[in-house]
Design a protein that fits this description.
This protein has 327 residues and is mainly alpha-helical. The protein contains 12 helices and 5 strands. Helix 3 packs antiparallel against helix 7 and helix 7 packs antiparallel against helix 8. The C terminus is likely disordered.
Length: 327
């Protein structure tokens, strides 16, 4: 929903209770009015008895739907990243092919794209992609550092693991910390591959390679593409600093909203488990006379107030980013 709808929902949280109190005051003037108001409250309460079940179903459905959507999207973008390199593939230079074999790279694609590119893509069959321009730019030691880095991604299936973490981080919208954890996991993959490259070639060749990759054209599907210029500034800081194992922390706002979301889910589960069944006679049709019309109107006001409150909580949970600070 857009911002205007959100402001309207938040306004209802404050205005609807005032309207209900005003209606109660008016109803208290007469005995029939009081009976109508109490009947409306009873009907709204009976309807709300099934609200936790409806919300649990909606929450489960939204998570499943988002999982399918983001999963299919990441799979498609991963295929596009591999096909992009295949459409512009050229024969790899003999020294590059020999180096890839020594590093255990099973699938190597050298592309003629006019950019300095190096990445690993492919969920089930990881493929290391480097551009001919990058091969021509780097020294042999720097090229070995790049291929050693990408070999770690391919061997450990980082594109698939990154994609799964990304999908879960987007699907679990009620736990914003999941998205931040996906970012942390991706950075850890990059740092682990960097450390493997440093052990093989030293820091200087890897630093040279990172500088050459500083302004590349990013391939599609960043969540399922490992290596290259991913999180480049943080990797350079870790490479040039004294601490090669930086401590990562979750944003405080994401943690607070996640705790709130987990609390809401736990309460809904508890209400579904111990809540009373909704009887059919609580929702039986009523004659459309004046008292019955007022009864239903007040009951719907109460239902709208409950829905507005749920929307406000959901909007609070989804607000804010998941940027990962690096210490």
């Amino acid at each position: 929903m857009n911002g205007r709808a959100g402001r309207v929902a938040e306004g209802l949280v404050f205005t609807v209770p005032l309207a209900v109190l005003a209606a109660a005051a008016v109803a208290a003037v007469s005995e029939s009015g009081a009976r109508v108001f109490l009947d409306a409250c009873a009907r709204a309460t009976a309807t709300l008895a099934s609200l936790p079940t409806v919300l649990v179903i909606a929450l489960t459905g939204s998570i499943a739907g988002l999982t399918l959507w983001h999963g299919s999207r990441q799979a498609r973008l991963s295929r596009e990243a591999v096909r992009l390199a295949a459409r512009h593939a050229v024969d790899p230079p003999p020294q590059v092919a020999a180096l890839a074999r020594r590093l255990g790279i099973r699938r190597l694609s050298v592309t003629s794209l006019p950019s300095n590119l190096a990445y690993c893509a492919g969920l089930l069959r990881p493929t290391v992609v480097v551009s001919r321009a990058l091969v021509a730019t780097l020294t042999p030691a720097a090229l070995e550092a790049v291929l050693a880095h990408e070999a770690v991604h391919a061997r450990r299936r980082h594109p698939l693991r990154q994609g799964i973490a990304h999908v879960l981080g987007r699907a679990l919208w009620i736990v914003p910390a999941a998205g931040a954890l996906a970012d942390i996991r991706r950075l850890r993959f990059e740092l682990a591959a960097d450390r493997a490259a440093v052990r093989r070639t030293g820091r200087r060749p890897l630093a040279e390679a990172l500088l050459a990759l500083h302004h590349p054209v990013s391939p599609p599907g960043p969540a399922t593409v490992a290596g290259g210029a991913s999180l480049l500034s943080l990797r350079i800081d870790a490479l040039t600093g004294e601490d090669t194992h930086p401590r990562l922390r979750l944003p405080t706002g994401a943690v607070v909203r996640s705790l709130l979301g987990v609390t809401v889910v736990a309460l809904l589960a508890l209400l579904v488990a111990v809540g009373p069944d909704v009887r059919e006679n609580a929702l039986t049709p009523m004659p459309m006379d004046a008292p019955a019309t007022l009864d239903m109107a007040v009951a719907w006001v109460l239902r709208i107030a409950a829905a507005a409150g749920v929307w406000t909580v959901a909007r609070m949970l989804s607000r804010g980013g998941s940027r990962v600070p690096l210490r």
